[in-house]
Amino acid sequence: MIRCKRAYQPTAQEDGQRVLVDRLWPRGCRKDSLALHAWLADLAPSAELRKAFKGGAMQFDEFRQRYRGELAAHPEHWWPLLEIAERGTLTLVYAARDEQQNNARVLAEWLEQEGERLERPNSPACMGGELGICLSDDD
């Protein structure tokens, strides 16, 4: 299960593994207050993309499309999160004010789609064993 949660909301036991998915540390948050499993800054949108979206130079649909392109180009950044989500709850922690249109929501959607794609018995990752793990229950 994949959840998204603002860094400014209190942690909860139901959060499972908490991963910060922003390039910048959330303002006003002490490092020990977020109770994170990991901070994956490389998984966040590029600085250029983040600034363009935050500054209003692009709409969410374009941001979403471009960020998905960045994710597709770097599976090594998001691949470990699939296994965490497969085993239990993964909470993507973000700082954006907008709780619906942000990078964590795009990433959650991406991970869910990739997890479904890779669970198919004929997925290339399962057949070839190229990444050394397979998320399918059939193995």
TrEMBL record:
Q: What is this protein called?
A: DUF488 family protein
Q: What is the top-level taxon of the source organism?
A: Bacteria
InterPro entries registered for this protein in UniProt: YeaO-like
Q: Which Pfam families match?
A: DUF488-N3i
